[in-house]
Amino acid sequence: MNKSELVEALSIKKNLTYKKSEQIVNLIFDSMSQALIDKDRIEIRGFGSFMVKDYKAYMGRNPKTGEVIEVKEKMLPFFKVGKELRERVDS
C-alpha cells in the first residue's frame, strides 16, 4: 500500500472527500516526521515504534574503486515491529 492508496482507503471507509483524507494523512505523516526530527520516540500500540538511531563515523570502502573513505556520523529512523502486528503477519 502506498500513500495515495491509504488516502483513498480512508476516504472510502470514513466517507470523506479525497482532499480531506489527504490532509489528514499528510498531517499524521508530518507530525510523525517532526517528532523523529526532534528525536522523540513514536509508539503505536499493536503496530510498532519508530525511533532515531545515532550512528558514529567510521572508515568505509567505496565498493566500486576499493578506495577507503570516511563515512560521517548520521542519524537514521528505525522501526521496531510490535508483538501484535508480528503475530498477525506470522499467522
UniProtKB/TrEMBL annotation:
Pfam family, one: Bac_DNA_binding
Keyword tags: DNA-binding
GO cellular component, one term: cytosol
GO molecular function, one term: structural constituent of chromatin
Family: Belongs to the bacterial histone-like protein family.
Protein name (Swiss-Prot/TrEMBL): Integration host factor subunit beta
The species this protein was found in: Malonomonas rubra DSM 5091
Lineage start: Bacteria, Pseudomonadati, Thermodesulfobacteriota, Desulfuromonadia, Desulfuromonadales
